[in-house]
Amino acid sequence: MAVVKRRPLSRQRILEAAVRFVDREGLEALSMRKLGSELGVEAMSLYNHVPNKDALLDGMVEVLLGELEVPPEDEGWERRVREAYRAFRRLAHEHPNVFPLLVVRPPDTMDGIWLVEEFLKTLREAGFDPQTALYAFRALSSYASGYAIAEIRGFAMEPAGARAGAGTLSEDDFPHIHELDAPLRDVDHDAEFEFGLDLILAGLKERL
Amino acid sequence: MAVVKRRPLSRQRILEAAVRFVDREGLEALSMRKLGSELGVEAMSLYNHVPNKDALLDGMVEVLLGELEVPPEDEGWERRVREAYRAFRRLAHEHPNVFPLLVVRPPDTMDGIWLVEEFLKTLREAGFDPQTALYAFRALSSYASGYAIAEIRGFAMEPAGARAGAGTLSEDDFPHIHELDAPLRDVDHDAEFEFGLDLILAGLKERL
DNA sequence: CTCGGCATGCTTACGTCGTAAACACGGCGC
DNA sequence: GCGCCGTGTTTACGACGTAAGCATGCCGAG
């Protein structure tokens, strides 16, 4: 019979299918049954390759991290760092439904550790002492993941402005939000992200 | 009979009970049935006050936001901003299991809008132009929520170091993480958080 | 005072979820 | 040629969110 021979299941194939599925349908729609049927297989078959759903989610953040484009070493520390966080934010754009997982379940894999090592190396070679390198890493990472999440899910404590139009709020009660009505209509998120990155990087340069 | 008269249910009472429950048992443990029994009531009774579970979660972030301690106006903009974000981070410490909701489901309530208005006012009166005030607000908020989440859930791409002890990693493969072994054992998170805040605030002062 | 409606809570029920357990089967090593 | 092991299936259980309909007590209108 001309039945297409199914490629065998594997952890990697399952994780990639899960990422594709969540990209398409959203995180809440993901269930073992639906993921199974996405792969032409019953839900329980997945358990031969993944111990439970939590591990599946962890695996998905591994996949994301694997897609992170690590910039080459030869560019000077500042440019390298900047490019790394741009790439990080790009992940959020490419997988907006999966990205929150990355923030909420930090990966504990060799790949993740390698990224940290690489980052620290760059800063140490730039001349930062170990402690400052660590602080810098965490400050930048906090900022970047906070920004990326906010960009995806709506800015925390954002003026309803950006959603409903700041103009709909009473000018008397909310004059400062109101004056941002126009700017809020089309914020340049790239510029906004770079603004914060600039601030932090400039501050770091002064501690060199 | 000496049956204790139950206080009547209300949206507020439900939300507060939900926050207490999640503080104690974790977010995943929260279900309508359990929350009901926490209040001495069946699950379906909750639906008289809250349209569905999603709205319940939204209400919980309202409760958190209501606990945010907004610093007084008379302190000078820099100090006021700093204190506000310290208070924000304090929320994360007081409700580590609820806080991620705040980051992932931005509130769209009048209270939230009022906070933004207040923040923008402070920056505008300090002399920032509207656009910069907005960028500043978002840079600081991104940093603070990113840091707070990382502090709660483990730092994203943290060297397994902080969890397993950096010393357990091969010194040859991960020299830079290894050299942070000692510092990582007891990071001063307060100082670390202030480091990033300083960086951003210093940068902002230069644009005044 | 009575009556009727409405707000509040309860009961039952449906479909979906994660996953434990037992089973079927096919290929590979002895 | 036989048994084992890795892969996938079947069935089943308890918990979940919530729709629908029912019970009950309070409050205002007559």
Can you characterise this structure?
The structure is a homodimer of 208-residue chains. Chain A has 208 residues and is mostly helical. Helix content of chain A is 64%, strand content 0%. The first copy, chain A, contains eleven helices and no strands. Chain A has helices at 11-25, 32-38, 53-67, 77-94, 99-104, 110-126, 130-153, 160-164, 175-178, 181-185, 189-206. In chain A, helix 6 packs across helix 7 and helix 7 runs antiparallel to helix 11 (189-206). In chain A, 38% of the residues are buried. The model of chain A is unreliable at 1-5 (pLDDT under 50). Chains A and B meet through helix 5, helix 6, helix 7, helix 9 and helix 11 of A and helix 5, helix 6, helix 7, helix 8 and helix 9 of B. The structure holds a DNA duplex (30 and 30 nucleotides).
Specify the number of helices of chain A.
11
Note poorly predicted spans of chain A.
1-5
Order of helices and strands of chain A: HHHHHHHHHHH
- The secondary-structure class of chain A comes to mainly alpha
Distance between the termini of chain A: 69 Å
